[in-house]
Design goal:
The protein is of the alpha+beta class. The chain has six helices and 23 strands. The structure holds 1-hydroxynaphthalene-2-carboxylic acid.
Length: 380
C-alpha cells in the first residue's frame, strides 16, 4: 500500500532560535503553519461565517429562443455517443466560474433527442428528473418500466436505477433535465455505470408505476412504503393540470398563487431526497408578494408570460424561458399575459436545507410586499 510522506519531514519545525516571543517568532509560526498545511482562522480574509448567505450564484435568465436554436443545431451536428450518453446542454450560471451548474446544488439542462434515436441505458447515484417540453412519441424506460413522454409530464430517475430514452417517431423530443450532480460531486458520492446493451428490455406493463401507485391514496397491500424516493416514475400532465384547477377553487398562496409540490405519496415528502419539484399556476393578472428562502431554485416557463422580480430586478419571461432564483434572494411573480394563465415548473433544493435544519424564510414587509424595481435584466 502507498503511504503518503509529508514532503519535508525535517522542516516540520524550524530550528529553535533564542527569539521566543518577538516578530521573528511570529514569522516562524506562520511559516510552520504553512509548511504543515495549516490555516489559522485569524488570517482568513473572507469572513468564514457571513451574517447572511453570500452566494456567488447570480439571478439569471435563458431565453427559449436561444436554448431552442442551440439545441436544434446540436441535434443536427452532434451524435449521441457512449460516454456522454445524452445530448444535454446545461445552464451554466455565470456566477459559478464556468461550471455547468445552474445553482450550487442543481444541474439543469435542455436535452434534445432526434426521432428514432436512443440515448443509451446507464445508472448513476445522481438523482434525476425530467420535465417534458415536447415529447412527440419519445419514451423513457426506468428499471424496465416504460413511459411515453408527453408535454407537461414529470419523469423520475431515482438513484441507481437503469434508464434509457428513445423515440419511435420521426420527430424530435425536447425536455428539461434536473439532477443533483453538483451536490453529489461535492459529497464525493458519485457512482456511474453503463448498461451492457443500448436499451433495457421492457419488463412491466406500459406506465406500470402509474398503474400501481398513481392514485396515491392507496398502495398494493403487500408492498412496503417507498421512503427514499417516489415509487411513481411519471406524473402525467392531465393529473397535474387537474390538481392545479382543483386547488385554484379553494386556496392559494400570497407568494406563489396556485402552487403544488409533486410528492412521494408514501411519505408526503418530495419526489427525491435532494430536491423538490413544483408546478404552479399564476392566474391572470396575479402579482404575488415578495419573500425569500434559504436554498436555490430553477424555473421553467411552461406557459404564459410575465416577470419575476428578483432582488429588485425585473426578469421578463415568456413560454420556454428558464431562470434562476439564488438563495436568500427576494422574489415575486407577476403574470403579464392578459387573460392567460401562466404556468411555471421549478426545482428547489429545499429538502436539503430542511433535513439539515438550515431552512429559513422571510416575507417582504415594505410597500405591501412588493419590491421597488431598480432595473430590468437584459438577456444575452
Ligand atoms: C443523464 O443520465 C441524463 O438520463 C441527463 O437523461 C443528463 C447529465 C449528466 C449525467 C447523466 C438522462 C445527464 C445525465
Amino acid at each position: 500500500m502507498d503511504t503518503i510522506e509529508p514532503e519535508v519531514k525535517a522542516e516540520v519545525r524550524e530550528e529553535i532560535s533564542p527569539d521566543l516571543t518577538g516578530p521573528e517568532a511570529v514569522a516562524r509560526l506562520n511559516r510552520d503553519m504553512q509548511r504543515n498545511s495549516l490555516t489559522p482562522l485569524w488570517q482568513i480574509e473572507t469572513n468564514l461565517m457571513s451574517r447572511q448567505p453570500r452566494t456567488q450564484t447570480l439571478p439569471w435568465l435563458w431565453k427559449w429562443s436561444t436554448l431552442y436554436d442551440i439545441a436544434e443545431r446540436a441535434g443536427a451536428l452532434v451524435p449521441i455517443e457512449r460516454g456522454g450518453d445524452r445530448r444535454a446542454i446545461a445552464l451554466s450560471n455565470p456566477g459559478l466560474e464556468g461550471r455547468p451548474f445552474a445553482t450550487p446544488t442543481l444541474w439543469t439542462a435542455v436535452q434534445w433527442l432526434n426521432g428514432h434515436e436512443v440515448a443509451p441505458a446507464h445508472r448513476h447515484t445522481a438523482q434525476a428528473i425530467r420535465f417534458i417540453i415536447e415529447g412527440n412519441g419519445s419514451w423513457s424506460t426506468v428499471e424496465g418500466d416504460r413511459v411515453f413522454l408527453e408535454r407537461g409530464d414529470l419523469v423520475l430517475t431515482p438513484p441507481w436505477l437503469w434508464h434509457d430514452h428513445g423515440s419511435k417517431s420521426d420527430e424530435r423530443a425536447i425536455w428539461l433535465d434536473g439532477l443533483d450532480i453538483p451536490l453529489n460531486n461535492y459529497l464525493d458520492a458519485s457512482f456511474f455505470e453503463p448498461y451492457k446493451g443500448e436499451a433495457q428490455a421492457v419488463t412491466q406493463a406500459l406506465n406500470g408505476t402509474v398503474l400501481k401507485y398513481g392514485v396515491g391514496q392507496m398502495r398494493p397491500a403487500w408492498e412496503k412504503r417507498s421512503v427514499e424516493y417516489s415509487p411513481i416514475f411519471t406524473y402525467k400532465w392531465t393529473d397535474t393540470e387537474r390538481a392545479l384547477d382543483n386547488l385554484a377553487q379553494v386556496a392559494s398562496s400570497p407568494y406563489d398563487d396556485i402552487a403544488l409540490e409533486y410528492t412521494n405519496p408514501h411519505t408526503g415528502g418530495p419526489v427525491m431526497p435532494a430536491f423538490s419539484a413544483w408546478i404552479q399556476m399564476l392566474r391572470p393578472g396575479i402579482h404575488t408578494q415578495a419573500h425569500r428562502q434559504v436554498g436555490s431554485s430553477v424555473y421553467h416557463v411552461f406557459e404564459g408570460s410575465g416577470e419575476t422580480i428578483i432582488n429588485g430586478v425585473s426578469f421578463r419571461w415568456e413560454k420556454g424561458d428558464f431562470f434562476v432564483v439564488p438563495s436568500w434572494a427576494w422574489h415575486e411573480h407577476h403574470n403579464l399575459g392578459g387573460n392567460e394563465r401562466a404556468i411555471l415548473f421549478s426545482l428547489h433544493d429545499t429538502p436539503l436545507l430542511l433535513a439539515l435544519n438550515k431552512y429559513r424564510e422571510e416575507s417582504y414587509q415594505l410597500n405591501n410586499g412588493h419590491q421597488e424595481i431598480t432595473g430590468t435584466f437584459q438577456p444575452v
